[in-house]
Amino acid sequence: MYRCLVQTDALTAERIILGREESRHLQTVLRVREGETVELFDGAGLTRRVAVRTVSRSGLTLAPLEAPVAHPRLPTEVTLFASVIKRMDWTIEKAAELGATRVVPVLTERSVIRIAPDAREAKAERWRRIAEDSVRQCDGAWLPEILPPVTFEESLPRLAAEQPVFVAALSPSARPFREALAARPERPAKAGYYVGPEGDFTPAELERLLDAGAIPVSLGPRILRAETAALYGLSLLNATYLFL
Ligand code: SAH
User: Fold this and answer.
1) Half-sphere exposure of 31 (CA within 13 A, CB side)
2) Residue 168 Cα to ligand 1 middle (Å)
């Protein structure tokens, strides 16, 4: 079904009018017509099916077909601490698909990608658009929160709020991720997952993460690309917590 992200106010209104900007995707890409059904979502848990009443250059008018439907959040809030990598757009798309609650992009010492401080908010905006597209196409109701990139140092204080935090670590002390999850049979309200960049964490960074309480986990004997490591961990967290 056609889906469109709208503000909560618009979604809950009795007569819904979407301006040019909001209806652009529906109008120019999907070319919706009068009478067709569209599902609105607000990215904060509400969806609502509506019928297209009128189509014009200035926008669309829509008539609700049902009351707004509230979808619960995933039972465990997952925060992905993702070192900024070349394939960051892909990583954001997949994190949104897999229902991450939040993505904290981190500029680590060996990150190949550098982002000047004054370009960070714009970068986050771009990633938010990617997450929106991703959630739209996978029938999601919740958008992940995408923070502007932070430095490695800035990421550390955030760890305390997201415990347990697992860090994908290429070190002999890391135990298999599945084992680390099985050791904590209760479903936590929150969980964090921290992944390094293409060039890996520096030993000092990994040590700082462990000092901050992160649990080192292994993804197996192969050295995965950073984006694969992100996808792997999020999938495992889903497989564990969604069905627990
Ligand atoms: N270029 C580095 C590898 C970096 S892999 C090298 O050749 O050594 C990028 C990130 O993915 C790592 O920092 C780690 O967080 C994660 N990762 C990849 N494979 C992993 C594995 N088998 N176990 C745990 N973490 C892994």
Assistant:
1) 0
2) 7
Atom of ligand 1 nearest to the CA of 197: 9
Whether residue 81 contacts residue 165, with contact meaning beta carbons closer than 8 Å, is answered with yes
Ligand 1 site, CB within 6 A: 168-170, 195-196, 198-201, 218-220, 222-224, 226, 229
Cβ atoms of residues 166 and 215 within 8 Å: yes
Extents of the domains making up the chain: 2-70, 77-242
Q: Which fold has domain 77-242?
A: Alpha/beta knot (3.40.1280)
CA 83 to ligand 1 center in whole angstroms: 11
Q: What band does 185 get if pLDDT is binned at 50, 70 and 90?
A: confident
- Whole-structure pTM over 0.90, yes or no? yes
Give 244's pLDDT tier (boundaries 50, 70, 90): low
The ligand 1 atom at the shortest distance from the C-alpha of residue 220 is 22
* Lowest-pLDDT range of 2-6, 46-50, 71-75, 136-140: 71-75
The atom of ligand 1 lying closest to the CA of 196 is 13
Alpha-helix runs per DSSP H in the chain: 8-12, 20-24, 88-97, 120-137, 152-159, 177-182, 203-211, 226-241
Could you say which DSSP state residue 66 is in?
S
2-70 under CATH 2.40.30.10, yes or no: no
What atom in ligand 1 is closest to the CA of residue 222? 22
- Ligand 1 pocket test, pick from 83, 113, 200 with the greatest ligand atom count within 8 Å of Cβ, gives 200
Q: pLDDT by residue (tens digit) across 119-152?
A: 999 999 999 999 999 999 999 999 999 999 999 9
